[in-house]
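Before relying on records like the one below, remember that each one covers exactly one chain. Contacts with other chains, cofactors or solvent are not represented anywhere in the record.
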Amino acid sequence: MLQMKTDALMVTPCDEEEDNMAMLCCHGKNGEMFMLSRYPDEDEVELTWDYEPSTLDGLKVTLTATTLSIELAAGDADALGGKDHLQITHATAASDLAEVEETLQNILKGTGTFTRT
Protein backbone atom coordinates (compact mmCIF):
# COMPACT_ATOMS: atom_id res chain seq x y z
CA MET A 1 0.00 0.00 0.00
CA LEU A 2 1.24 3.45 -0.90
CA GLN A 3 0.88 6.21 1.67
CA MET A 4 0.95 9.95 1.24
CA LYS A 5 0.42 12.98 3.47
CA THR A 6 -1.05 16.25 2.24
CA ASP A 7 -2.24 19.48 3.83
CA ALA A 8 -5.51 19.55 1.91
CA LEU A 9 -7.49 17.94 -0.86
CA MET A 10 -8.17 20.47 -3.62
CA VAL A 11 -11.40 19.85 -5.52
CA THR A 12 -13.53 21.17 -8.34
CA PRO A 13 -16.92 19.42 -8.59
CA CYS A 14 -17.67 20.87 -12.04
CA ASP A 15 -15.14 23.10 -13.83
CA GLU A 16 -17.10 25.05 -16.43
CA GLU A 17 -13.87 26.30 -18.03
CA GLU A 18 -12.74 22.66 -18.53
CA ASP A 19 -15.91 21.19 -20.12
CA ASN A 20 -17.49 20.48 -16.69
CA MET A 21 -14.64 18.21 -15.57
CA ALA A 22 -14.71 17.07 -11.93
CA MET A 23 -11.26 16.95 -10.33
CA LEU A 24 -9.59 16.12 -7.02
CA CYS A 25 -5.90 16.87 -6.62
CA CYS A 26 -3.31 16.94 -3.86
CA HIS A 27 0.44 17.20 -3.41
CA GLY A 28 2.33 15.13 -0.88
CA LYS A 29 4.91 16.28 1.63
CA ASN A 30 7.59 14.49 -0.44
CA GLY A 31 6.66 16.09 -3.76
CA GLU A 32 4.21 13.42 -4.95
CA MET A 33 1.21 14.47 -6.98
CA PHE A 34 -2.14 12.64 -7.07
CA MET A 35 -5.15 13.55 -9.18
CA LEU A 36 -8.49 11.97 -10.04
CA SER A 37 -10.54 13.54 -12.82
CA ARG A 38 -13.44 12.78 -15.12
CA TYR A 39 -15.42 14.55 -17.78
CA PRO A 40 -19.20 14.00 -17.46
CA ASP A 41 -19.45 12.40 -20.92
CA GLU A 42 -16.68 9.84 -20.32
CA ASP A 43 -17.03 6.36 -18.80
CA GLU A 44 -13.53 6.14 -17.33
CA VAL A 45 -11.74 8.01 -14.57
CA GLU A 46 -8.28 9.41 -15.11
CA LEU A 47 -5.90 8.79 -12.22
CA THR A 48 -2.58 10.61 -12.25
CA TRP A 49 0.17 9.49 -9.86
CA ASP A 50 3.50 11.30 -9.92
CA TYR A 51 2.53 12.96 -13.20
CA GLU A 52 1.80 9.63 -14.97
CA PRO A 53 -1.88 9.44 -16.12
CA SER A 54 -3.88 6.20 -16.40
CA THR A 55 -7.54 5.63 -17.28
CA LEU A 56 -9.43 3.29 -14.98
CA ASP A 57 -12.87 2.11 -14.02
CA GLY A 58 -14.02 0.23 -10.96
CA LEU A 59 -12.25 2.40 -8.39
CA LYS A 60 -13.29 2.13 -4.77
CA VAL A 61 -12.84 5.36 -2.81
CA THR A 62 -13.42 5.91 0.92
CA LEU A 63 -13.35 9.36 2.52
CA THR A 64 -13.06 10.06 6.23
CA ALA A 65 -12.34 13.30 8.11
CA THR A 66 -8.58 12.58 7.90
CA THR A 67 -8.00 9.99 5.16
CA LEU A 68 -8.81 9.31 1.53
CA SER A 69 -8.39 5.69 0.53
CA ILE A 70 -8.15 4.69 -3.14
CA GLU A 71 -8.43 1.01 -4.09
CA LEU A 72 -7.80 -0.13 -7.65
CA ALA A 73 -8.89 -3.29 -9.41
CA ALA A 74 -6.05 -5.85 -9.37
CA GLY A 75 -5.38 -5.40 -13.09
CA ASP A 76 -4.89 -1.64 -12.70
CA ALA A 77 -2.06 -1.73 -10.13
CA ASP A 78 0.41 -0.37 -12.69
CA ALA A 79 -1.33 3.03 -12.31
CA LEU A 80 0.20 3.27 -8.81
CA GLY A 81 3.58 1.79 -9.62
CA GLY A 82 2.47 -1.79 -8.93
CA LYS A 83 0.40 -1.07 -5.82
CA ASP A 84 -3.39 -1.42 -5.74
CA HIS A 85 -4.08 0.77 -2.71
CA LEU A 86 -3.21 4.40 -1.89
CA GLN A 87 -3.98 5.94 1.46
CA ILE A 88 -3.78 9.73 1.65
CA THR A 89 -3.73 11.35 5.09
CA HIS A 90 -5.12 14.88 4.79
CA ALA A 91 -5.90 17.89 6.95
CA THR A 92 -8.75 19.24 4.82
CA ALA A 93 -11.01 21.59 6.78
CA ALA A 94 -14.23 19.90 7.94
CA SER A 95 -16.20 22.69 6.26
CA ASP A 96 -14.68 21.69 2.88
CA LEU A 97 -15.46 17.96 3.10
CA ALA A 98 -18.96 18.31 1.59
CA GLU A 99 -17.39 19.72 -1.58
CA VAL A 100 -14.80 16.91 -1.58
CA GLU A 101 -17.65 14.39 -1.29
CA GLU A 102 -19.63 16.04 -4.12
CA THR A 103 -16.54 15.98 -6.34
CA LEU A 104 -15.82 12.31 -5.66
CA GLN A 105 -19.44 11.40 -6.36
CA ASN A 106 -19.24 13.24 -9.70
CA ILE A 107 -15.98 11.48 -10.60
CA LEU A 108 -17.13 7.98 -9.62
CA LYS A 109 -20.79 8.09 -10.71
CA GLY A 110 -21.54 4.93 -12.67
CA THR A 111 -17.93 3.78 -12.78
CA GLY A 112 -16.76 3.31 -9.19
CA THR A 113 -17.78 3.05 -5.57
CA PHE A 114 -17.71 5.96 -3.10
CA THR A 115 -18.10 5.62 0.66
CA ARG A 116 -17.96 8.34 3.31
CA THR A 117 -17.40 7.23 6.90
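The chain has one domain: 2-116.
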